[in-house]
Amino acid sequence: MAIPKSEVIWFDGKFVPWDEAKIHVLSHVLHYGTSVFEGIRAYQTPAGPAILGLAPHVKRLFNSCKIINMPLPFTQAEVSQAIVDTVARNEHNACYIRPLAFRGYEVLGVDPRACPVQMIIATWEWGAYLGADALEKGVDVAVSSWRRMAPDTHPAMAKTGGNYINSQMVVMEAKRHGYIEGIVLDTQGYVSEGSGENIFVVLDGKIYTPPIGNSILMGVTRHFAITLAKEKGYSIIEQQIPREMLYIADEIFFTGTAAEITPVRSVDAIEIGSGSRGPITEAIQQDFFAIITGEVEDRFGWLTPVK
Q1: Which phi and psi angles does 190 have, rounded to 5°?
Q2: What is the DSSP letter of 111?
Q3: Any catalytic annotation for residue 22?
Q4: Whether the predicted model's global pTM rises above the 0.85 cut
Q5: N or C: which end of the chain has fewer CB within 10 A?
Q6: C-alpha–C-alpha distance, residues 223 and 212, integer Å
Q7: How far apart are CA 146 and CA 132, in angstroms?
Q8: How many CA atoms lie within 13 A of 34 on its CB side?
Q9: Which one of 59, 66, 137, 159 is the catalytic residue?
Q10: How do the pLDDT tens digits run along the chain, 307 residues long?
Q11: Around Cβ 91, how many Cβ atoms within 10 Å?
Q12: In this structure, are strands 8-11 and 117-124 parallel, antiparallel, or unpaired?
């Protein structure tokens, strides 16, 4: 389904009509993948639309730029305000938000430093990423034949456009074989993450998740889920997870801006737990949605109102 159009896109500090947000075909980003981006969501609350995790998302964007030596010509405060303004200008109640920084048009060659750093912020209406029933019924996934890139070959902490070729291969392979999503292992054979989600494994009342050394992106929603789980008294163990641990798990769930908190029903056609959303997943999920939709107090300060 095509992206539903909004009125404007923020482009290098100015609002331009949706159809006029264009770049040159010889822009460096089109040839070498020199971009960093974020995925952010705004939710409808009783007090109006609110952006989830604005500060940590913007901080991660700037960290990604720093890692790949791509200095943004804006401050974090300016980008944060631009995101709020773009949601407001497009009059969204709930939406997906895509800030993207990239190397533009100047010279063509592997070294990008002579090319200008540009930035856009787009917003549009957004549904359930892994399917309408996924949040309740869960998803069927498979372990991919592709591996996450080793940490000495690519900076996994940077959310770069080029890195997502790896993710594309993972999800396309999964869907060719009838699965919704793929789980990718690192180069040592330990569980890393989904194509666009972090992963949690529940076993014997404890919650396990891969550590940063397993080539994972340090997800914002991952942090939210850990915070909620600890508040409920669950032990969070960040350790290497062998593939076979997935098969004997009581519960598995994904986290991500797009996926939110989505239970996994089966891995490689092996049923996980009872084959439905487990009680720990459901408890964390319910707390998460209660906060982000304004049903309960935003006790962690995760929401930024759009005024």
Answers
A1: -95, 155
A2: -
A3: no
A4: yes
A5: N
A6: 12
A7: 27
A8: 27
A9: 159
A10: 689 999 999 999 999 999 999 999 999 999 999 999 999 999 999 999 999 999 999 999 999 999 999 999 999 999 999 999 999 999 999 999 999 999 999 999 999 999 999 999 999 998 766 666 899 999 999 999 999 999 899 999 999 999 999 999 999 999 999 999 999 999 999 999 999 999 999 999 999 999 998 999 999 999 999 999 999 999 999 999 999 999 999 999 999 999 999 999 999 999 999 999 999 999 999 999 999 999 999 999 999 999 8
A11: 12
A12: antiparallel
DSSP 223-276: HHHHHHHHHTT--EEE---BHHHHHT-SEEEEEETTTEEEEEEEETTEEPTTSS
* Radius of gyration of the chain from its Cα atoms, rounded to whole angstroms: 19
Which tokens belong to 183?
Answer: 């789980």
Q: Return all residues near 77 (Cβ < 8 A) that are at least 6 apart.
A: none
